[in-house]
UniProtKB/TrEMBL annotation:
PANTHER family: RAB GTPASE ACTIVATING PROTEIN 1 LIKE, RAB GTPASE-ACTIVATING PROTEIN 1-LIKE
Keywords, comma-separated and alphabetical: Coiled coil
Coiled coil residues, start to end: 12-131, 170-225
Highest taxon of the lineage: Eukaryota
UniProt-annotated stretches for the region Disordered: 237-256
Protein name in UniProt: Rab GTPase-activating protein 1-like isoform X1
Amino acid sequence: MRESQLQQEDPMDRYKRENRRLQEASMRLEQENDDLAHELVTSKIALRNDLDQAEDKADVLNKELLLTKQRLVETEEEKRKQEEETAQLKEVFRKQLEKAEYEIKKTTAIIAEYKQICSQLSTRLEKQQAASKEELDVVKGKMMACKHCSDIFSKEGSLKLAAINREDQGIETDDEKDSLKKQLREMELELAQTKLQLVEAKCKIQELEHQRGALMNEIQAAKNSWFSKTLNSIKTATGTQPLQPPQAVQPPKEST
């Protein structure tokens, strides 16, 4: 029945209706094509923008990586210089300490020698005084025992005729005593100066040890600060997981 109706229908009307249907289908397909083309262009633009952003980000990351590598090289160079300076300072302090110890030993030996000399001079002076007194007692006893000599012996216990000679001898003895006392005073003065130098050397040693301790603390603090700054810069530049901090470098044992 449909075929018969179509056959009975005017071909011109049928062709017009078929043409309208095809035009509508064509318009629909063209609209879909336009929509797809617009979506494709939009997608291409979005992808291009994403690609440009990714390339810019990659360039920035590459620049930061290069800067981080350069900083790492510079920090390693600075660390090496600081280690060399630390070694030089330790060597200087060690030499100063050895010099101070040598001066202390030398000063101690000089003090011991001065003490020994002073003891010997004191013993010698006492012996000479005792011998002079014994000789005077012997001469006095002999003169008192002699009848001829007792007349010229004074009541104070000294000889009148030999007074000049004995006075000369006494003057010589006094001069020798004064000379010994002068030498003793000079040695005491030198001993005092040596003790003062010893105290100054000890103070200088304590000051050097204090400076060495302060310097070691500053060096350790600088190392810790350098490690922390390096780690923070690497974390910031790379944006990766935090690195394990390196173990702190143990300072070398101090030489005794």
